[in-house]
Amino acid sequence: MPSDRLDATFTALADPTRRAILARLAEGEATVMELAEPFAMSLPAISKHLKVLERAGLISRGRDAQRRPCRLETAPLKEAGEWAEHFVRLWEERLDRLDDYLQELQGAEKKQGPRK
Amino acid sequence: MPSDRLDATFTALADPTRRAILARLAEGEATVMELAEPFAMSLPAISKHLKVLERAGLISRGRDAQRRPCRLETAPLKEAGEWAEHFVRLWEERLDRLDDYLQELQGAEKKQGPRK
DNA sequence: CGCCTATTTAACCTCTGAGTTAATTAACCA
DNA sequence: TGGTTAATTAACTCAGAGGTTAAATAGGCG
């Protein structure tokens, strides 16, 4: 997972409007009009948000006459989620190793008596 | 997981320098100097990045004389990762239901013969 | 064709984010 | 006490994100 891909994904996910759009799309395809409806925001603004989502690969767009229906694409979400959870796992493994190490130290100390 | 929390987390993760700092911290605590070392960037710049990470709850800071060692905090990473993967799951369940529905349609069609 | 609908592009504004250098605070050390 | 190291704050620049309105494009429809 290259860094600029993560950049694009996390940047796209950082905006609440865009997350709301994704939430809406999780219920199925929608046109720009439909997506814009819940927001107090102009159509061009929504159009820009969609472009950000598209560049991040989080949505793809079809064509239906003059409509450009959007659909959710989950691949980048998976990558981002896995990145985050991989990180958590790394950290927890490290804590475990640290814990083992401390216990080992304590064991050694018992054998040779308290240091101080 | 409130929206502004996700905002802060994803915003913090959107920057490659900050992700690199987190990666470094996954190997253990580090001071600001140590964190700054790999980057061609001034200390105040790093200091600002750390503030962003701290506000997002992704790091916490201790005190050791004049040093302010940073340590990784995984809670927001977990939340963000779970958010992303929950989303993926929702979508895939939806696809499954859609699939069931299509198969049901096809079954009905067989019983009453092709429509056209 | 001429009009209506859906969407994008253009041009612009404003605010924020990432970076800078210079100055300040905080804590140790001789 | 004065000097040095670690880190932050202040004041500034610059670019880009997110928003606007108005104009342009694309594709039915009478």
Automatic annotation (TrEMBL), chains A, B:
GO molecular function terms attached to this record: DNA-binding transcription factor activity
A Pfam match: HTH_20
HTH arsR-type domain segment(s): 1-102
Superkingdom to which the source organism belongs: Bacteria
Protein name: ArsR family transcriptional regulator
Species of the source: Archangium violaceum Cb vi76
